[in-house]
């Protein structure tokens, strides 16, 4: 199994000077196949909508690194690990800047970027960036159109939602067209994955909160819908995030990861360990333990 891990972008470890670079470098040397970021702009004291499973927001979100900076830092100090996001709240960013940042990171990493995109759920964050939350679906569709143009044409022009790009030379292209994965479990979100994405971003929890067939049946439906849309269903991948609850023992995480990977057969799997560590040293220690446990089966 090719196992990856979250970069220390949330929690106390995220505040460590040079911590992301150190972790990325040493995790890759230890055998991490991929390194991942999440995206949290705000941790409101009294959120309009609380984080799922919490009365307010997790303490880890009080400290949050910029995901693009974290990916760029990781790109500079690694050579082989896939650099992914699960998930960047794509519709909270200005699209042209967003396209340029993704392209630059892919070039810096020599084609290792796997952009996992979503639309977010926090009204507070949308208010903070001045974007109407009720437009997020159409803004994501528009952004996907722009990325296709930005990555495949030398002259880019685009009439977007709330912005317009005049005909412009965009000669900086990714090393290879990054495989865009999309998050979501709702009907519209899953249809968008089937019709437009290169892959899906499923999430698994430890301890387990639902049967594995919830994910396997959903992925099967996505691929069936993709085939009906005239796409190759086998080309629809999956990048699985495993969320481990605070206090979960490494042995249980490894056992659960092995189980879900055998059932779902994702292309990429990573463990989000932000809730389990409070320092870069702990992040690295747990990374090594999980790599060893999974390797032993």
TrEMBL record:
Key word tRNA-binding present: no
GO molecular function, one term: oxidoreductase activity, acting on paired donors, with incorporation or reduction of molecular oxygen
Keywords: Oxidoreductase, Transferase
Domain of life of the organism encoding this protein: Bacteria
A Pfam family that the UniProt record links to this protein: Bac_luciferase
UniProt xrefs under Gene3D superfamilies: Luciferase-like domain
Luciferase-like domain mapped to chain residues: 11-264
Cross-referenced PANTHER family: 5,10-METHYLENETETRAHYDROMETHANOPTERIN REDUCTASE (PTHR43244:SF1), PTHR43244
Full protein name: Hydride transferase 1
Annotated source species: Amycolatopsis camponoti
